[in-house]
Design brief:
Blueprint (H helix, E strand, L loop, with lengths): L1 H19 L4 H12 L9 E2 L6 E11 L2 E10 L5 E7 L9 E4 L2 E3 L22 E5 L4 E9 L7 E5 L6 E5 L3
Antiparallel strand pairs: 1-2, 2-3, 3-8, 4-7, 5-6, 5-9, 9-10
Length: 172
């Protein structure tokens, strides 16, 4: 029934657009298509320790020049909002979110001011990151790592909240 009203609404917009020479329908259709697109996960969802209803999955493991870009999606599968979760606390980027490739550990890259090349912190210090994930919503975290050698085609990704994400393919 809702779809019928949406269809009737779009038809009405199309008729009004034709009468007044306004090209509104294509922009509405494009906006709807973009809103429905979500990145496909590269890994199976993993439960987040200590946070029932939260799962994590990798959505990107991509070479970008001499860096490896990682995106991690946090999904709240519950009907309760998660507010103020201290996802990153005081410099844990240093050793708790890392990539393992060819038996070598890669840590989050930093800029010249030693700020992690990752989702910015939510505190004045920039080191801590509190996360809010609405019920049935998502939150995306990203970080940049040094690229592993060119012959490495898969990595493992470690977080302090889940089991390792293993054999994650690297895309170009």
């Amino acid at each position: 029934m809702v779809n019928r009203y949406i269809t009737v609404g779009l038809k009405t917009v199309a008729i009004v657009s034709l009468l007044f020479g306004i090209a509104a329908l294509p922009s509405i259709a494009c906006h709807q298509a973009r809103a429905q697109t979500t990145p496909t996960a590269l890994t199976e969802p993993q439960d987040v320790n200590g946070h029932p209803g939260l799962v994590m999955e990798l959505t990107q493991c991509k070479l970008d020049g001499n860096m490896l870009s990682i995106r991690l999606r946090i999904r709240n599968t519950s009907t309760t909002d998660v507010k103020g979760w201290a996802f990153v606390e005081n410099r844990v980027y240093i050793d708790q979110f890392y990539v393992l490739a060819a038996n070598k550990k890669y840590l989050v890259l930093r800029d010249t001011d030693k700020v992690p090349l990752a989702t910015p912190g939510t505190h004045d210090s920039g080191w801590a990151l509190d996360v809010e994930v609405p019920a049935n919503g998502t939150y995306t975290w990203y970080a940049k790592y040094p690229a592993p050698p060119p012959d490495v085609k898969k990595i493992s990704f470690y977080t302090p909240y889940t089991l390792p994400f293993e054999d994650v393919p690297i895309s170009q």
